[in-house]
Amino acid sequence: MKEATLLLTFIVTVTIVTGLIEEQPMPNLLCDCFCNNNVTHHRADLVHYKCIQRYLARTYDQRWHVNVSTSAMNYIKSLEREMAQTLLKRRTKRQTPFLYHGYRKEIRTLTTAERQQFFRAVNALKSDTSVFPNAYEAIAAFHSGASLPAAHGGPAFCPWHRYYIYLFESALRRKDRRVTLCYWDSSKDSNIPDPINSNIWGP
Prior knowledge:
GO terms for molecular function: metal ion binding; oxidoreductase activity. With 203 residues, the protein is mainly α. It has helices at residues 2-20, 28-36, 44-58, 70-88, 112-127, 135-141, 147-152, 157-175.
């Protein structure tokens, strides 16, 4: 009886596994890249890396937002339009509010008022449910899923995150125009035995 049960379990498992495997055609971008890079002249692993990264970079806009709500996508796009108008100083019928250009400070150098402004702005994003599930999570979704290979897997790392930080800061400034995103200098805490004692957690 035990042998029959094991055999049945094995058959069901194999059936399920083989049922999940199916052949998929290689995307044309990948196919062209692999065909145009001769492995006799270049290391195969470098060709593979180059082709995969190129494919991910060129198709990111077709993938990253698949699981992001429509309201979140529209919210991100509205932030991007606002950023573009601010950066290009483009005048439109509906004027973009003036965005305060502050100095980016290490979190410990913020005044008490600046810290409270920053915390209130972040909490305001989390409470803003005009975007599903909320404005903060909509921005966080931009840094997840299929966007990560394009953001982390190549030379776009620095400019991608520079843009992402500006996107987040623009959202914060919708809540409070005085807010400038701060940074954390982790080297100042590197010798602390217990990170909980860092004064970044102070009021």
